[in-house]
Structure formats: C-alpha cells, structure tokens
Input
Amino acid sequence: MSAPNSKRPSRPNRFGIGFLSIFQIVLLLAAVIFANYLSSGNSKRADLSRSADYSLSSSTLNYLKGEELAKRERPVKWIMALRRSSPFYDRIRALAEEYTRKSGGKIELEIIDPIRAPDRTSQFAAAYNLTLVRDLILIDARPDEAAPIVTETTTGSAALNANITVALAEEMLTYAVDAKGQRRPDAFRAEDLLTARLVEAIEGKPRTFLFLADKSRVDTEGENSPWSNLAATLRYRNIRLTPANLSDLTAIPEGVDGLAIVAPKYDFTDAEIATLEEYWNSPRSALLILLEAGQCPPNLRIFLRSKGVTPRRDRIITKSGDRITSTARGIFSEGVPFLEDLSGRAAVFEGASSSLEVRENADDLSVKKIAPTPLIQIGEGFWGEADFGKSDAGEKAGETFDVIRDASPPLHLAASVTRGATSDDRFAAEASRMIVIANTDFLDPDRQRAENVDFLASSANWLVRRDSLAGDTPRTIGIYMLPLLDTQVSFINRLNLIFIPLAFLIIGGIVYSSRRA
Output
C-alpha cells in the first residue's frame, strides 16, 4: 500500500518580498516628501488658544492691510533682541511673526538672542547707537535706507531718527494698584504697544490732543484714575494727551491734531467759544467731547446745538419690577464706516448717561455742510428721565415715564458730526470731525468694558484721519495670582520634594522585587 502523494511546500521568494518591502518604503517616503512640499506652500496657521491670544485684532489687521503700509517702497524692518530665557519670549515672538505674515511682505523680522549671538548683538547696538541692549523690538520705518539713524535734537543731544522706535518688553506689562495699595502686575499688552510703536515709526511722531484742563473736573489723581485711563487708551493709539488752559489761548496752536473736552464743569466765555468756533471752522479740526450725565455748560450746549447735537438734562434709565437701572444698553449704529466692526453689537455703558438729540439730515444743517450722525441707539424700555434724583419733583419722580417732561425713544448716547464736503474725494480730507459722548463714568477702570475701549479707540483714530486703524482693539492678557497661605506653600513643597519622589521609589522597588522573584 503506497503512501499518499504530498506536495513539498515551496520556498518563499525572499528576493521578491524584500524588493516589494523596499519599494513600499520608497513610495511612503516619496509620499511624505511630496505632502511636505505641498504643505510648505499651502500651510495655514490656527490659533487654538482659548481667547485667541496669538491672533491680531481687527484694528491691527486693518492697519497692516491699509494704505500706510501698502504705499511704502521700503519694508519696515523689525529687529527683535530678546533673550530666550525671557518669560514672554514665546508670546512676543509669535506676535511679531504674525505681524510679518499679515503685512504682505511690508514687515521684515530679524530675531537676535543677545546671549547666543553676542557678535550680532554688538553690531546691532553699534548701528543704532544703543548703549545697552535690553529685551526689546526695534522698528525701523525710515522711508530711505540712506537716512541717518541718529539725529541731533534742538538741545544738541543725539536721538534716534523719528521713524525709528523701540518697544521694550518691560513696557508690555502694565501694573495696577490693588485694594491694599500695592502695585502689582495687571495685564500683558504686547500687541497694543507694538501697534502703537509701528504707527509712530511710520508717521514719525505721535498725534497731539490738547486736553482743556481748566474746563474739566475729571479725576486726574492716581494710576487708576479716569484721566490716566483715558490718556493710556489714547497713548496706545499713538495719540498724546497734553493738558492746556483754553483761557490762555487766543487761537489753537499749529500742529495740534485735536481738542479733548472731558467732563466740563465751568462754562466757556464768549471769547473762548469764539476760539472754539474758529478752530472748528478750520480744515482738519477734531473735537472729542465727553459729557457728564445731565451736565453741560450753557454756552457749550449752544455751540453743540448749532452743530446738530443737543445734550439733554436727563438720565437714561429703565425699570424692571421695582428696580431702577441706569446702566445704558443699546447697539452701535450700522452704516458708519469707522464703526464697521462694531455695528449691530451691544453697547453697554455703566454709570450715569444722558441722551442726545441728534438732528440728522436737517435742511438748515445740510446747507452749512454739517452732518450729525447717531452712533449709539439705546434699546427698548429706556427713557430719558428729566426728574431723576429730584426730591421736590414728587414722590414718584424717576419711577414712571412722563410723556411731557421725559425724553422718549429713540434715544442716542453718542453722535458724530462732520463739517465739509465729505462726499467729495477732493475735499473730504479737509473736513472737520467731532465725537460727542454723554457719559464719562465709562472712563473709570472699574466700570470700563471691552466695547467701551473699542468705541473710544475707533472714534479717536477716526478723528485723527487714521480710519484704517478703526476696529476691535487688542485684548489684554490678564495676569492672575493664586493666593496661598504659608502652610499651603509648605505642604506643596513637601509634596513635590519628598512624597512624590518617595512614591516613585516605592513603586520602582516593588517592580524590581517582583521581577527578581
């Protein structure tokens, strides 16, 4: 009996398998290289941080895409001299690179580490006459590279060219005084400072607003005062607020870009109103007027009424149940170019607010080429209470709407006024501009909201003809401190230095003994 036939198994083709494996590896490498090649030219950057901390604000983006940079033949040169050990190195570098990407090639960035590149740091310091290189970003916006880097001032001292500015890293950190009177870090405002320095370098000097100090009663004391807050907001827009007395002026000096009238307490004389009228009727004049609720000196009210905006002696309030609320809520007007990014959004102004009567499209004003425009319309349910806080006006004063005495909707909290042929491109640049806001409490840092800062910044930029910088302002990055007791700090130190290492040692010993067994 013969054994059944069985086929002998064939040997695997080792050469074929090896060749196929190598071919697949080559194809995989080629695919990876090809994918990297394609992605290198079509990459997209995504900011995945919770508050978009590494993305530029709309106002900065508008400026980077605006005419000021587009018309430049020579790119703006940024030199970032910052130690890698600096706590803000990664954040500042990310922002600086974002400026470069969004500028369309109009900003060139060079990064220098003073510790790792001492020779390049020395060359940089010598070229720009810097005796000490601290953590900084130097912005060189000279229109001509042949222009001198260092110039001589009127006093004979050396100074950097007006088109060269320096943003120190230490200036990006702001401070506030806490309840105990101690000065502590408050916020990180890198984008605010970098944009302000960029604008200053391109324009050559900051814009100047005269603050009429002899007419104002705004609080100027302390780092957190309304005055300091207003000055800081304008400073980050490259606008310098300079106190002056109108009574000492027979005319507004040349070179002044605008006037700021804030919380006027004392009335204007006829001569001062004449000075104000003369300035308003001059080309490219700008007025920023912030009024306390229900408070406007008579002569100033007459001046504003002739321009189509009349401040009322009332208080914007609403009633919910038995509660009276004076926090004004509304929306920003649509169709206003410099408020395009804010149009339709909620506008909330805390504190006391009054209403403005805005005579939009009035025939007598159109003849004079004066065009008032409401900027903030108060929402439904609010009215202008004429007897707010008046005990002699009756027991129910301020609690119910009086159709005869009180102002009925629509109510406006802010308005703009232009004088001149704004619709004609040949003369639009010479038009006068004015902003009127019937609230000053929003200048208090404890009452100020993000939309208030955006509105004030956009209005100020519009007044100085810097329309491309209007929009959402950069968001400040808050700095938070975790209060810990001494016993809690001691426990954390023991946990990190003793208990956690001891736990890992015990686990390692158990694993080692189990393997030995």
